[in-house]
Amino acid sequence: MSTKKQPSFAAAAVVCFGTLLILAGGILIFGIGVHVLLILALMLTGAVSYSYGYSSAEMIDGMKSSLSRATPAMIIFILIGTIIGSWIHAGTVPALIYYGLEFINAQYFLPMGLIICSMTSLATGTSWGTIGTVGIALMGIGMGLGISPPLIAGMIISGAYFGDKLSPISDTTNLSAASADANLYDHIVAMLYTTVPAYVICLIIYTALGYGFTAEANINLAQVTQIQSILDEKFNLNLIVLLPMLALLVMMLIKINAIPAMLLTTFLATLISLIFQNSSLTEALTAINDGYTQESGIKMVDDILLRGGVQSMMWTFSMVYLALCLGGVLEKAGYLTVLVEKIVTRIRSAANLVTLVISTTFLSNVATSSNYMSIILNGSIYRKVFEEAGLKRRMLSRLLEEGGTQTAALIPWNAAAAFAAGTLGVSTLSYLPYTFLNYLNPLLSILLAYLGIFIFRVAPKKSHQ
User: Is residue 446 situated within a structural domain?
Assistant: First the structure.
């Protein structure tokens, strides 16, 4: 029977920052595939953990625990592939692109798209659902208008995470409030103080960028017409083909679990493909696995349509699987807890504490590849610290969202980023500079804290004489 010791601060630092160096350095400097880097990081973590008395079986138990918590998300990865493939084959996505090109002006596309994604995620409580539905359509419309795909993806992700962060039916919103032991609606109100200013700045930036897309300079109207003509030729674009998207949005609004909702809309899209697109049963079912594969010969159209299917998500799925295994071992041995508890004893000011919470929640995202894990972990670590500092719990819950929810889509090996990149067809490092809300929000929160703004202190108790 193994005798386990608590890792030292030095060991925790070696493991956590070593993991960060392997992943970030391997990707940014050497261009090594992230799967290989995750295996190397897992080997490092496993070797150090073994020296502290953790057996292989115990580390595997940590992996199992991490994977178990993420099982619904892993299933959703696969189902997003089925939705994209079946929706394109049914004409749902082509119809959205066709009518979007008809009515949306390129000059206002970015701010309009931001608002559409924000309202969708606010209503449904899911950034992933927003990216996987209206996000796909907006990618097609924006590409048709001649706008850079990384810029479109950044706008979609910014809008999706605005609503996800503030919606009372969002899982991360509820998780952050629960982890900090804060009232849900107090938590949402606290987030408005920093999220709304960041969102306004974001909207101004996207509007300014949109003004650069003039009809004369950047939009080839003949190209738009050609795209519409090919879509009209290849698909029956009647309004009935939009039913799968409408059905999914309605099911999300009435809080039907995402997994059965996605399965039902995949089935509905398959029926529409059989009835309105004259597909054979074999073609319709193959699209669920392989995605849409019928080339048009026009690169712009093929870039928009040739995607989806279960197989399109397997690279992402396997990467997230490895990342969650790594996160499970890190959590099992308690490296992050040791690291944070040592650092927090040196913190003296509220502003420094704000910076620390956002930073360690972000680093937990980097290390564990899961914003759920980072929110839970940091909430439990800092609850007592905030009480002793005389700061309100809703302030901690707000910081967990700013460091955890908002930054998840910025880390290539994080499940949220892998999902967004795989769904939108744009790499994380390509769209990262344009996800303005996701990094402006935490940076603004830190700046305001050092200015002494929006520091929520517990009122001192009145003495009774």
Answer: no
